[in-house]
């Protein structure tokens, strides 16, 4: 892939510490200075992973810019006779509303759409204010469209591979639960607890209880544990059998080793171990771990 090594640390790898004054655009200056470029010539980022923009936060940003100006330049690439946004859409929206004629920008030499996609996704994912579903979708696009493995994604965004895996699992949740994560009604902790419920109907029932009663993560985990003790189609008749502590400890050990959901189903003296995976890359990763045990 073009630019894969250069993109390892997001935009920080391409933008040096700057001490130069803001300049007018010039063909000889790419990423060594901040340029003032016409706002009218900046196109939106076609690879923007962020799907939701808080209108209140946008209004606060606009008021701040109106008073103090742009403190952090946007980042763009030259695209035909115009510029294409890489990072800074909220700032661009704000100056458009304020009718600014120019905006300070880093102009990077990004040659291909593939490189543009990867850089845009990594930069946005590294922002702390991105909701969990947008982060998960960003990771998924890096896997599918940039042809990266989960290990490569983790290295590029500076996260543990298990963190990337846990975010990707969120995309298996029903749409209603994903939407709740987007708007902030549920946390990542709530979602991880809900993911351990195999039956979709039960999953949604627990989700509705959690939102309606504003349950803590710990209370949702306790509720999930009870639900998982009820066989599907049993009309919620309680099962008196508790999972032995040594089985729970073994499951937790496997989960830490494989960084995914693992279940042990015991019948008499025998049983089986189920290891979940969510893509071919994930299966390959787990096989690699098994081979190295």
Characterization of this structure:
The protein is of the alpha/beta class. The chain has a domain at 6-129: Conserved hypothetical protein from pyrococcus furiosus pfu- 392566-001, ParB domain, CATH 3.90.1530.10. Helix content is 46%, strand content 13%. Strand 6 and strand 7 (270-275) form a beta hairpin. Helix 1 (55-68) crosses helix 2, helix 8 runs parallel beside helix 10 and helix 9 runs antiparallel to helix 10. The longest helix is centred in the first third of the chain and has 14 residues, at 55-68.
Number of helices: 12
Tell me roughly what share of residues is in helical segments.
Answer: 40-55%
- Relevant CATH superfamily of the domain at 6-129: Conserved hypothetical protein from pyrococcus furiosus pfu- 392566-001, ParB domain
> Which strands sit side by side, in order, in the main sheet?
1-5-3-4-2
- CATH class value of the domain at 6-129: Alpha Beta
CATH architecture of the domain at 6-129: Alpha-Beta Complex
Question: In terms of structural class, how would the helical and strand content be classed?
Answer: alpha/beta
Query: What does the overall shape look like?
Result: elongated
Largest sheet descriptor? 5 strands, mixed
Oligomer: single chain
Number of strands: 7
In terms of DSSP E residues, the strand content is 5-15%
- The N- and C-terminal alpha carbons lie at a distance of 32 Å
Mean pLDDT: 79
Radius of gyration: 24 Å
Q: Unreliable runs, pLDDT <50, ≥5 residues?
A: 1-9, 16-32, 232-240
Order of helices and strands: EEHEEHEHHHHHHHHHEEH
CATH topology (level 3) name of the domain at 6-129: Conserved hypothetical protein from pyrococcus furiosus pfu- 392566-001, ParB domain
């Amino acid at each position: 892939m073009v630019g894969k090594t250069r993109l390892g640390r997001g935009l920080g790898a391409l933008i040096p510490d700057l001490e130069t004054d803001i300049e007018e655009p010039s063909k000889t200056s790419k990423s060594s200075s901040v340029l003032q470029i016409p706002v009218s010539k900046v196109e939106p980022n076609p690879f923007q992973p962020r799907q939701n923009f808080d209108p209140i936060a946008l209004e606060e940003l606009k008021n701040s810019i109106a008073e103090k100006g742009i403190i952090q330049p946007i980042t763009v690439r030259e695209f035909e006779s115009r510029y294409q946004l890489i990072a800074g859409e909220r700032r661009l929206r704000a100056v458009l509303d304020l009718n600014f004629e120019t905006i300070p920008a880093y102009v990077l030499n990004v040659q291909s759409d593939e490189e543009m996609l990867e850089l845009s996704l990594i930069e946005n994912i590294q922002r702390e204010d991105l909701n969990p579903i947008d982060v998960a979708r960003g990771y998924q696009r890096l896997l599918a469209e940039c042809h990266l493995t989960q290990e490569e994604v983790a290295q590029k965004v500076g996260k543990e591979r298990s963190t990337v895996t846990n975010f990707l699992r969120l995309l298996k949740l029903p749409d209603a639960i994903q939407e709740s994560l987007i708007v902030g009604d549920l946390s990542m902790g709530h979602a991880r607890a809900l993911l351990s419920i195999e039956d979709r109907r039960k999953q949604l029932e627990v989700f509705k209880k959690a939102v309606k009663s504003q349950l803590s993560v710990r209370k949702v985990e306790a509720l999930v544990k009870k639900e998982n003790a009820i066989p599907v189609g049993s009309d919620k008749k309680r099962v008196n059998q508790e999972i032995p502590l040594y089985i729970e400890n073994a499951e937790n050990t496997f989960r830490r080793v494989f960084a995914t959901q693992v279940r042990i189903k015991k019948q008499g003296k025998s049983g089986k171990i189920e290891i979940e995976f969510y893509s071919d890359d994930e299966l390959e990763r787990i096989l690699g771990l098994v081979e190295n045990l």
